[in-house]
Amino acid sequence: MRARLALRQAGQQVELREVALRAKPAELLAASIKGTVPVLVLPGGEVLEQSLDIMRWALARSDPQGWLSAAPEAEQLRWIELNDTQFKPLLDRYKYPERFPEASALQYREAACALLLRPLDQALAATQAWIFGPQCSLADMALLPFVRQFAAVDAAWFDAQTELPALRNWLQGFVDSALFKAVMQQRLPPWAPAQPPVYC
Ligand SMILES: N[C@@H](CCC(=O)N[C@@H](CS)C(=O)NCC(=O)O)C(=O)O
Asked: The domain spanning residue 47 has which CATH number?
């Protein structure tokens, strides 16, 4: 999702190949043995295997709203690293507590709130807009898809969280945005070798 958001924001057209993770095509594994998505194969043969690298590649080519320059890179990376290395594992545990029986879903949810969502709400309350100020940043777009997933685990609970008003507002703005809607609308069936190319 975040790679797709950045590609679209940057107006970079790439061929999209949807992957069913239960049936990874040989072409995916040939490009990237890691077998995770997303993977971007560049015309020169270089392969980008991390969503964040794809975001940066796209925005380095065109960044019409200045996501990269909205805040110093180190400050943006602090939020992104917290999300990717600590919040994402808690999100997985909150989503699938049966796979992680060491704690309960509610304990994982509380840990995720304490780690990321409350600090994020405070940052957003201070700016009344995006994480760093009036301008959307790479960090906002790198985090939003994960916060959206978190909210969706128990939407009724999330919507009742009056202690996270700025965060809820930020998420709602994203869900309502033309960029998010455009990416969501282009949902594809899994790619097969004979399929004609589909571009974003
Ligand atoms: N750090 C990687 C994480 C990628 C990742 O874990 N992707 C998941 C899907 S969202 C995946 O491909 N998992 C492989 C699998 O479930 O077999 C990135 O952001 O690109």
From this structure: 3.40.30.10
